[in-house]
Amino acid sequence: MTAEVKGWCPGAHRPMASGDGLVVRVRPFRACLTDQQALALCALAEEFGNGMLDLTSRANVQIRGVAADRHQDLLRALWDIDLLDADPQTEGRRNILMPPDWVSGDQTYRLHDALAKAIPDFPDLPEKMGYAVDTGRSPCLSDASADLRFERDGDGHLMLRLDGAAKGWRIDERNAMSAVKDALLWFNATGGKSAGRMARHLRQVSLPDKWQSCTPRAVTKPLAPGRDNDATTFGVPFGNIPARDLIRLIQAARLTELRLLPHRLIRVATTVPDIAPFITAPDHPLLRIHACPGAPFCPQATVETRDLAMRLAGSVGGTLHVSGCAKGCARPGKADVTLTGRSGRFDLIRDGTPWDPPAAAGLLPHDLPDLIGTA
């Protein structure tokens, strides 16, 4: 069976059918949920879905298992709590990553809102394309999935960089959206749509020299679980949260706001004690493990994934990706060890992606511990 690569991600207006119902993706504005919005989402997951919330690698939240005949009711509920764009096309294209330290009215906040307003006027683009506003106190989004990046150069000036390029160009906030639009028009004019993403396009096409004049700040502290500066960042195994556990966290810690970060992380502006299943240890082995829902929850998967990934968590020193099919939804990049489901068995790929040639094929689960231990 060949995996069907959709070329788009589910949204709220445009959900994706899965083995357990519709997957409805919610894109919180500025990647932020108030406590009331988060509690309401938990209630909606229990009323309309399977009682779970999924954090995505691009800082969104998904409700799974939604019945098709209840989708419109769910949309109305999301609108009531200010988690839905009125325009389906805008909602589907509003892929904007935010750093954790923005404050209302600062430049990061203003750039986000300018982007959200300008997106309907941008040219037609592949639907997975997105933006990172990495203009906080220190850069932290350079390894997250985005195609155009607002950053700062070594002197602290605002710059725009296209993903896949080492350098970008200095811009002024007043012309930031016109700079983005120029870059997107160039992307389309040079055949970028066929590549699908900016970094993939730049492997085939040379970037104009005028857009390669300054270097972004180096990342000194990547995003990771832990406690610092009176804040707590949580990781969640596979990004999969029982709604009742998130309710317990919000109420126990008296949270007023949750900020969603790439890599399925949540940051709150207070120091919170450990509460299962949330992880605060940056080196926890489960945070190196990536697995999609797998069978029977995804119709393209032919293997169970997450229970297997949990059993194998201690067997790999680096990253492990267990993918139900060759699409690689849980981790689109390389992993030290990747297991790809194929016709009920597994392919083993070392230092690669689910669609790379395997080092071994046709493996059963009991074959795997010894084999991956040698990776």
From TrEMBL:
Its EC number is 1.14.13.83. It holds the Pfam family NIR_SIR_ferr. Keywords: 4Fe-4S, Heme, Iron, Iron-sulfur, Metal-binding, Oxidoreductase. InterPro entries: NIR_SIR_4Fe-4S, NiRdtase/SiRdtase_haem-b_fer, Nit/Sulf_reduc_fer-like_dom_sf, NO2/SO3_Rdtase_4Fe4S_sf, NO2/SO3_Rdtase_FeS/sirohaem_BS. Gene3D superfamilies: 3.90.480.20, Sulfite Reductase Hemoprotein, domain 1. It comes from the Bacteria. One of its GO terms (molecular function) is heme binding. Residues 15-78 form the Nitrite/Sulfite reductase ferredoxin-like domain. This is Precorrin-3B synthase. The lineage of its organism: Bacteria, Pseudomonadati, Pseudomonadota, Alphaproteobacteria, Rhodobacterales.
